[in-house]
Known about the structure:
The chain has about 270 residues and is of the alpha+beta class. Helices cover about 25% and strands about 20% of the residues.
Amino acid sequence: MPELPEVETIRRGLSQQLVGRTISAVRVRQAKLRHVVDARALHEHAVGRTISRVERRAKYLLIHLQPGRVLLFHLGMSGRLRVGAPASEDAKHDHLIFQMGADLEMRFHDPRRFGMCLPTTVADLPNHPRLRSLGEEPLSEAFTSDYLRAQAKRSRKPVKNFLMDAAVVVGVGNIYASESLYLAKLRPNRPVDCLRPVHWTRLHDSVRQVLQAAIDKHGTSLSDYVDSNGERGEFQNELFVYGREGEPCARDGHRIKRIVQAGRSSFYCPWCQR
Ligand SMILES: [Zn+2]
């Protein structure tokens, strides 16, 4: 499943490829995605409109259309947005096709169909049911160590579960939570109520560092993730603990351990993460 760095990489690609282009036609081959796509409404919303910018909020992609309209995409488990020259034939699982003149198209491809495409408007974004309860963006100014600490008040959650709570901070999925905690030298099951200010500072800095490094490497391709050009990311080569059970810690050589928290694997070094 793509996480924040992968979605940000896709956003950058889409932005380069799509801004300034006008949607000339929309074809719906399969309407039953996570939310049923109303082909007529989508056509009316998008056709004849020029793409002005592509934004990201958490793991949602917001394709802005002039004037004031937005296509809100989520890739779900297996969704891809492919932009390029028009394909000679439709592939299985190509559900939505946005034509932009004779030389460019964008295909939403999603074998598992947990993805979504919702027409909305700029005016509705602040109160959009999908967006309104999301926490801060981890790379924004508003995301500070004081903010994190304040969010943890009265919580006894393990720090990894806390980091993965989208109402606190968005886009820190399983891989990046494990890596951030390694960098911060914090054990994933440590309860947040026993973290001191110095820990919060370290944790905050680590989350930013890991996400920024992953964006710089165009994301992590552990399974089938590719960006809008079909390119794989490279951050999977830079992981310190995730998926490395039994391998030596890069700091001290002790073996990486795996535990299960809230049904997800956590990886950490029992020696340097306390
Ligand atoms: Zn270690």
